[in-house]
Amino acid sequence: MIEVRVCPRCPRVLPLESLRCPACGGPLTSETRTGVGRALAATELSVPAAGWPAPHRLVVVELEGGGRVLALSPDELPEPGRRGRVERSRDGRFHFLG
Predict the structure, then answer these.
(1) Bigger pLDDT: 15 vs 26
(2) In sequence order, what are the residues at sequence separation of 6 or more whose Cβ sits closer than 8 angstroms to the Cβ of residue 75?
(3) Is the pLDDT of residue 15 over 70?
(4) Fold (topology level) of 2-97
(5) CA within 13 Å, CB half, 16
């Protein structure tokens, strides 16, 4: 289970700790999602930003129930459409386990 922020005024679902919607400025509420979703796109950075391990694998995941998150992939890059689970680590990062 992961917590997401939802804007009741517009169809935005955000995995952020923000208090306001970036699109309409409305207040956000919290909802829980199962964390199950499917990979939409993935890429591997061979030269990531300072402090990040190489290779750095990023996955855009569409969550069941709505919303998208950018997650790290600890394994190989998933093919688009691959189903898996998103978990949030203690440091706040999302990880896609496919």
Answers:
(1) 26
(2) 57, 98
(3) no
(4) OB fold (Dihydrolipoamide Acetyltransferase, E2P) (2.40.50)
(5) 12
